[in-house]
């Protein structure tokens, strides 16, 4: 009998311990879920900040797809960035047609460029034209160059914005089976982290170079090669 009572008591303790462990696991899972929701909410707030700051880009796409806000974007990728670092100073100097369209670091620690690779606008060319591929380059003040993003002809980087000293946001689009869809890339240049967002609606009718044509007014892209 004493052995039976000991076994029964041990069984109750085991069941109680399992219940406690499940409760702790559920609580921890709930906290993690809440933290993720808070983190996502913060990211969407950052997108709202960029949409309000980059009114030309926002209005351009709103004229096609209607008004948009951060809540209309879905987080589809969170990953590290392999920056492909190499020594190279920024070749775009004052007087270059693309110089006014670069994005200088808020604290003067370098420049981000999203148009140099895309736009062929050298003096030897009669007319500038767009390459099929795009890249985002971070020319650091220490003379090093980092490639932060690259994209083939399936999309385009259209504009950018420094949120703060560490975060740069790229605006653009992807062309998918359903059509053209606005995208937002949030880049942390300090920790080399990438978060990619996709608008929850798209369009089959979009002229791929239309925003750059509007944006790069001093670089005439209207006569062809595009």
Tally of DSSP β-strands? 12
Q: Roughly what fraction of the amino acids lie in strands? A: 25-35%
Helical amount: 25-40%
Instruction: Please give the alpha-carbon distance between the first and last residues.
Output: 91 Å
Q: Radius of gyration over alpha carbons?
A: 25 Å
Determine the structural class based on helices, strands and strand pairing.
alpha+beta
Average pLDDT taken over every residue: 81
What topology, given as strand order, has the largest sheet? 1-12-11-10-9
**Largest sheet composition:** 5 strands, antiparallel
Pick out the low-confidence regions. 1-34, 122-126, 221-226
* Broad shape: globular
SS summary, helix count: 3
Task: List the secondary-structure elements in sequence, H or E.
Answer: HHEEEEEEEEEEEEH
SSE map:
Elements: H1 2-53, H2 55-65, E1 73-80, E2 86-87, E3 103-104, E4 110-113, E5 119-120, E6 129-130, E7 134-140, E8 144-151, E9 155-162, E10 167-176, E11 179-188, E12 193-199, H3 210-215
Antiparallel strand pairs: 1-12, 2-8, 3-4, 4-7, 5-6, 7-8, 9-10, 10-11, 11-12
Q: What labels would you give this structure?
A:
single chain; 226 residues; alpha+beta; 5-stranded antiparallel beta sheet; 12 strands; globular; disordered N terminus; disordered C terminus
Tell me what the structure shows.
The chain has helices at residues 2-53, 55-65, 210-215, and strands at residues 73-80, 86-87, 103-104, 110-113, 119-120, 129-130, 134-140, 144-151, 155-162, 167-176, 179-188, 193-199. By secondary structure, it is of the alpha+beta class. The strands form three sheets. Strands 1-12-11-10-9 form a five-stranded antiparallel β-sheet. It is globular and about 40 Å long.
């Amino acid at each position: 009998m004493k052995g039976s009572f000991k076994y029964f008591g041990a069984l109750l303790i085991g069941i109680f311990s399992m219940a406690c462990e499940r409760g702790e696991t559920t609580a921890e899972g709930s906290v993690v879920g809440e933290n993720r929701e808070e983190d996502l909410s913060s990211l969407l707030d950052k997108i709202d900040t960029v949409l309000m700051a980059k009114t030309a880009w926002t209005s351009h796409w709103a004229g096609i797809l209607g008004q948009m806000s951060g809540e209309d974007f879905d987080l589809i990728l969170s990953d590290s960035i392999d920056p492909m670092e190499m020594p190279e100073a920024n070749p775009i100097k004052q007087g270059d047609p693309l110089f006014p369209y670069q994005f200088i670091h808020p604290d003067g620690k370098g420049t981000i460029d999203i148009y140099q690779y895309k736009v062929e606008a050298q003096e030897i060319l009669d007319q500038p034209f767009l390459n099929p591929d795009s890249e985002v380059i971070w020319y650091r003040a220490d003379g090093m160059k980092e490639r932060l993003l690259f994209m083939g002809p399936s999309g385009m980087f259209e504009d950018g914005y420094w949120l703060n000293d560490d975060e740069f946001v790229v605006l653009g689009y992807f062309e998918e089976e359903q059509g053209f869809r606005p995208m937002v890339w949030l880049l942390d240049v300090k920790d080399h982290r990438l978060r990619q967002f996709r608008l929850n609606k798209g369009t089959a009718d979009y002229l791929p170079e239309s925003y750059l044509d509007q944006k790069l007014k001093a670089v005439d892209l209207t006569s062809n090669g595009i």
